Amino acid sequence: MRHYEVMVILEPSLDERNVAPSLEKHLNVIRQEGGDVEKVDVWGRRRLSYEINKHAEGIYAVVDLNSEPATVKELDRQLSLNETVLRTKVVRRDPKRAGARR
Amino acid sequence: MMANPRPARRKQNLLARMGESTVDWKDVEVLRKFISDRGKIRSRRVTGLEPKQQREVATAIKNAREMALLPYPSRATK
Description:
The complex is a heterodimer of chains A (102) and B (78).
Chain A: E1 2-10, H1 16-32, E2 36-52, E3 55-67, H2 69-81, E4 85-92
Antiparallel strand pairs in A: 1-3, 1-4, 2-3
Helix pairs in contact in A: 1-2
Chain B: H1 28-32, H2 44-47, H3 51-66
């Protein structure tokens, strides 16, 4: 099991209140495969430094989780298939050092 | 002895000035201090960081760029 940080940028047209529940749905993969989700942090709407798919804004969310490498990979794959997801990033992190700051 | 034409003015900066030894790629405020207004990463000569820290900062900036938290270098004024 390893600690991962997954950052997701979602389309700005979504309602921010729906972000957490829809992420939860994706995160079920982790739970089913024996991993655990530590924290879901929805930053909310933010200006992008450059346009992504013609969008100037995005809804940011950061998820801290523990799982097997193959499981995060699957999560990342499923997220990128979702059309409302503009971008994802998976970073491996030493949990001791992982800060919660923006 | 001849005077050094460029007086020593070293150790101007350090991440330590902010009371930190590492950076987080999600911490945009801190990372912004390490890029120029064109979006380029500042050199070690300017930042005064240790080699390890400089590499860390550079990677953090590149990660942040991929997630549109920081701009890529550009000619245009931002």
